[in-house]
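Summary of Year 1 activities. Much of the first year was spent building the evaluation harness for sequence design. The harness presents a backbone, in tokenized form, and records the residue chosen at every position. We chose the following record to illustrate the format because it has been used consistently in internal testing since the harness was completed.
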């Protein structure tokens, strides 16, 4: 049995191995392990790629969100509105900054993006930031939220961790709001060889504050103007990210082709709800996520067949133990909860082949038939048992 991973990091590494090795040799020879010219070069390159004036490289994507919020003055007594269907880091960073996450549902069952009408309904006098998440590789409709943010005096902060290279109406994700945060976790479209992240903004003043916060609140060595923390990108990761960034546009194009192939292969399968690209978006397909019935049974069969499918995410934020204190009951966000029950991420990476995708779809459709048959047998046995009990009375 040939396994197909959810993400093939080996194939991606092979494309940059020589360039990374040469860059690392230079770093090791100079013993310049934190900061320095290579980090500055990556910051400049990524800012140019996103077409935003300032990029501040940091240790990870969660820190990036927190650093952005702190630089904007968001903290205790403030609220930040964000979607319930996102990775916990979005809410976690808000809480770490001292603010309170206020959750809203997603808008539909095909894009899974934030419900902009629900955002307006969730505004209070304490709202200081709105944080749309560019989920699974496509941008949220930020232009619907910016007028609201301006009207109430709040910041628009993008969580762009899954959208490196995505565009909305021609503008890059990460350049749509007041500031943005992204993650370069290894499995991202642009992934490091460990944790890494960046904060983005068009404001020189905000960028200067972000740089201070990431480095112990220090604009210069041993001068500390604010309380910060240690969240610096190391130089070895900057080498990796620069090498990969030069190939990112091509990799994203390959992902789009693979997503189109999945669309075609799944077009005749009525039980699979395929993802939809929002009008105006250029998707980069960080994940190809479908909705299927009997998801957990189907996933078990896929894994048994060597298909590395995944779940993103098994519980919306309000149903995690970490955020039970927010006070949202089960049923508060029905679409997010249904997605958590039904969503399944299929293998997708730039190097995936047509044959691999055909096998994924073949195993998926077989697993769906098997799950339906199993449920049908269980239902018949249940009905027969109930009829026998009623006859015995």
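For this record, the design step produced the sequence shown next.
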């Amino acid at each position: 049995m040939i396994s197909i991973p959810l993400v093939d990091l080996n194939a991606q590494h092979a494309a940059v191995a020589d360039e990374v090795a040469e860059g690392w040799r230079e770093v090791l020879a100079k013993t310049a392990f934190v900061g320095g010219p290579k980090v500055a070069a990556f910051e400049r390159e990524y800012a140019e790629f996103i077409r935003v004036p300032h990029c501040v490289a940091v240790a990870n994507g969660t820190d990036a969100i927190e650093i952005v919020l702190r630089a904007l003055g968001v903290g205790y007594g403030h609220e930040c509105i964000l979607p319930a269907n996102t990775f916990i880091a979005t809410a976690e960073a808000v809480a770490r900054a001292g603010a309170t996450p206020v959750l809203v549902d997603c808008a539909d069952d095909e894009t899974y993006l934030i419900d902009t009408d629900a955002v307006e309904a969730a505004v209070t006098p304490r709202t200081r930031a709105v944080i749309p998440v560019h989920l699974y590789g496509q941008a949220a409709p930020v232009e619907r939220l910016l007028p609201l943010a301006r009207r109430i005096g709040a910041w628009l902060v993008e969580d762009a961790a899954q959208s490196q290279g995505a565009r909305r109406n021609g503008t890059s994700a990460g350049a749509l709001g007041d500031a943005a945060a992204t993650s370069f976790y290894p499995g991202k479209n642009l992934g490091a060889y460990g944790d890494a992240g960046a904060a983005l903004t068009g404001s020189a003043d905000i960028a200067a504050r972000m740089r201070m916060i990431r480095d112990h609140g220090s604009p210069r060595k041993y001068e500390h103007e604010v309380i910060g923390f240690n969240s610096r990108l190391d130089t070895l990761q900057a080498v990796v990210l620069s090498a990969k960034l030069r190939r990112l546009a091509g990799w994203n194009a390959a992902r789009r082709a693979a997503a189109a192939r999945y669309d075609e292969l799944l077009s005749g399968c009525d039980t699979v709800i395929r993802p939809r690209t929002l009008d105006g978006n250029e998707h980069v397909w960080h994940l190809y996520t479908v909705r299927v019935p009997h998801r957990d049974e189907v996933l078990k069969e896929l894994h048994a067949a060597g298909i590395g499918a995944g779940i993103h995410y098994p519980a919306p934020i309000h149903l995690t133990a970490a955020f039970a204190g927010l006070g949202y009951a089960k049923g508060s966000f029905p679409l997010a909860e249904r997605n958590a029950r039904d969503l399944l991420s299929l293998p997708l990476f730039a190097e995936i082949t047509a044959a691999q995708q055909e096998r994924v779809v073949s195993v998926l459709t077989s697993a769906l038939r098997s799950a339906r048959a199993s449920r049908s047998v269980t239902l018949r046995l249940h009905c027969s048992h109930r009829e026998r009990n009623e006859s015995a009375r």
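DSSP finds eleven helices and twelve strands in the chain. Quantitative recovery figures across the full test set are reported in Table 2.
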